[in-house]
Predict the 3D structure of the following.
Amino acid sequence: MARVRTGVRAIGAVLAAVLGASLVGCSSTGGKRAEDARKAASAQGKAAVNTPRWKIAMITHSGDGDTFWDIVQSGAKQAAVKDNIDFLYSHSDQGQQQAQFVQAAIDQKVDGIVVTLAKPDAMKDVVAKAAKAGIPVITVNSGSEKSKDFGALTHIGQDETIAGEAVGEELNKRGKKKALCVLHEQGNVGHEQRCAGTKKAFKGDLQNLYVTGTNMPDVQSSIEAKLQADKSIDSVVTLGAPFADTAVKAKDSAGSSAEVDTFDLNAKVAAELKDGTLGFAVDQQPYLQGYEAVDLLWLYKYNGDVLGGGLPVLTGPQIITKDAAAELEEYTKRGTR
């Protein structure tokens, strides 16, 4: 089974209480009924509440074609159906444009905003504008250390430094000596924190490799060149699920025996963990991030509820290995893990 790193923040009990009310029940019978109800509500577009139809906008730093954010949206949309929410989504991997999308949401007088802070300097002023306008904001995925300062109600995601440390510890367990950390988005503070956390916990040597994530042929050729030049590299760590398979191709082309490991989980990663192509993955539960962000904004609007007590609500990291991947595969196929 996978093991969960919780770091120093004991938020499990709080999060469990919310999930017990919001997601699938624990018993097999109750869980099946809840899942059937979820599917029926989604198919019919029926809300489970009679509150006003509030409008919530989610604006992320996603680039085009990043399947991770499809999973986040899946959770957010499911919560929106249940909570009678009009859900809007926009994204840009350019900080200035992401900020413009947040401003557009403010101008539309939305009832709540979910936003990522991968590039916090670009987002600081506009998030403050939202708070000043009386629009509740929840940050997700990235920027936990800036969320409270920027005026957000809470942050939902994983602590990226703790996640990186979990990777370093797992590499140690596997006896790795030299690792390559592949950063695919320049300026993303969360990516820097992941690699820094890995370096802190890893007893071997770790090198950073910066690539252009929007150009997969460039990603593959850059990793391949590095592996060809240094045969002592025995592990490649990618920071997103779509890049894991590209790293595998680069490894094979370079004739390297390095293990490929990755942050994040999707159907392809689960299959490759299961067949041994990948060593391990670090799951931060993106479906949960999207679902809880929308659900918590509804709870705040309806009942003044806030989670976290001033600390981030952690959804990871969880180390997923071959055995655990087999158990989660059905969830990845339906797009919820």
